[in-house]
Amino acid sequence: MTEAASPLVEVSDLTVHFAGRGNVLGRLLGKGPVVHAVNGISFAIGRQEVLGLVGESGSGKTTTGRVLARLVPPTGGKVRLDGEDWLGLSGPALRRRRRNVQMIFQNPFASLDPKWTVERIVAEPLKTHERMGAPELRRRVASLLEGVGLDPRLMTRYPHQFSGGQRQRIGLARAMALNPQLLIADEPVSALDVSIQAQILNLLAELKASHRLSMLFISHDLAVVRHVSDRVAVMYLGTLVEIAETKTLYRSPRHPYTQALLSAIPDPTRRKSRKAIALKGEIPSPLNPPSGCVFHPRCPLAQARCAQETPKLRPLADGQWAACHLA
Amino acid sequence: MSATSPASVESLDPPVAAGRRFVSELVRNPKGLTGFVLIFGVVFIAIFAPMLAGHDPTRQVLEARFLPPVFAEDGTWGHILGGDNLGRDILARVLYGSRTSILVALLVVFNAMVVGSILGAIAGYFGGLLDAVIMRIADFQLSFPFILVAILMLAIVGPGFWTMVFALSVALWVRFARLVRGETLKIRELEYIQAAKSIGVGHVAIIFSHVIPNVLPTIIVIATFDVAEVVIAEAAISFLGLGTQPPTPSWGMMISEGRNYLFENYWMALGPGIAIMTTSIAINLFGDFLRDTYDPRQERL
């Protein structure tokens, strides 16, 4: 484990509910439908650790990342960043501290303002947080671009003149400009070609090492997550179902959902494929999550108890935690 | 593959490229070109009216009363479009009248554009109560016809050139507000806005540096159409006697004055009528071109 004495990020019992699309009266009275995007999850990210967060769409992994980036207000729970109450900050105090947590986004075509030059884009965080003259600013931008493998001479160009991979590098340069402690990478390579994915992943690894970064790496791609993460957390319908070191999790998943998920990965080294565990049905609506264990309607091992009692995330061996009565 | 090679061979600076694109698109579009040339003509006339008119637009000459235009019987080249009921040269009045029309249209559209865009962006960006308040005011106002709102405002503040500008601006801001709000709702979810927020950029800076610049092409297209509408509205209001006051020439007022003599001396209304029609068609043609070129999604509102 790379975790030092105190983790950089401690999330406890984080809950995010969104008001659904009810009628106006219902919303005014606070009785409209509620989307349970994230339902009381707890985890920690160690210093210089990469925590992978996997789950299908609608599992709440992106929302979790956005709460950590303070883009989405949480409904409940606590997040401590470097020992400080991160969710308690607001106004100018929050804005000043935002430099410690930066984010890169899934869609490299939407994450850069099309009307801005690359220079202006990468300079935005520097201008926001630091006072410096134009020549100094330009030097910093140039070195940041070099740091992500882009020719600084291209800084006068506009985003549309770059490919997806190059744009992701620009986004990364912008995120690295303030030397953040935590980088939240929300599906950073999902929109890229496989060959480009590897380049960006390697770049992330380099930056992580050289800048002593911690990272929350959100992805639905199990292979990518395995490649970059020190530990992996699995989310299902707003709940954290399992968290373990990458090796442990991939070798011996304990939660039935994780088992099903991992069994779906094709293994080219085996002649006869393992039998994939086929899950019944669809992921239920977060408007009305199932009682007890949220996974029980689809779980191949479900028992009567699972529909009533919500399983707590509990420690098993080797720092592996799972939220299942049967694990 | 080298990450440092640019994806596109295009190396022109965008302002230059945008200018060239405008010209090359314009010459390939006969409608747009016609509109552009006519607008240019009207603006030219407005600026150089004193040199082109040949007559003082307010000077009354007794012999020129109801003088027919040159193409009618008894017409003279001295007064090409004839004379009005007070013996003023109609051509001179039409030429000078372009100044009123253009000035009012530009002032009104500019005011409405600035105020409407900012309010719309605020409503769309912040949402919630602010959005509800701004947009309900806009909806309320939109439930009345544009010209009625303008006349209502004029009835409150009294007739006159500047009050007309004010009234028309008030009547027009809602369109920009609605449009910009809609676009802002779309843009605010985009990741570059999220990125700016996560960097710690303030809301005002985000609105002015990210939101507005990205809505601007749409705003400009709408503004063009509104210029044409304001030209007509100015004429209508002046026709009703609530706008430009005599003796300042205005196309709408000229038509109003000619109305009483329409059967015997139709030409009093002919000159300003053609001027209004030409100007609004020209602006609409050019607006169509702008929309097709820069904002293909936007259907006529």
Explain what this protein looks like in three dimensions.
The complex is a heterodimer of chains A (327) and B (301). By secondary structure, chain A is of the alpha/beta class. Helix content of chain A is 31%, strand content 21%. Chain A has helices at residues 24-28, 61-68, 91-97, 118-129, 134-147, 164-176, 194-211, 222-228, 246-251, 256-263, 304-308, and strands at 9-19, 34-45, 50-54, 76-81, 84-85, 101-104, 182-186, 214-219, 231-236, 239-245, 314-315, 321-322. The longest helix of chain A has 18 residues, at 194-211. Chain B has 301 residues and is mostly helical. Chain B has one domain: MetI-like fold. Helix content of chain B is 71%, strand content 0%. Chain B is built from 10 helices and no strands. The longest helix of chain B has 37 residues, at 90-126. The termini of chain B are far apart. Residues 1-13 of chain B have low confidence and may be disordered. Classes of the chains: A alpha/beta (327), B mainly alpha (301). The interface between A and B is medium-sized, with 44 and 24 residues.
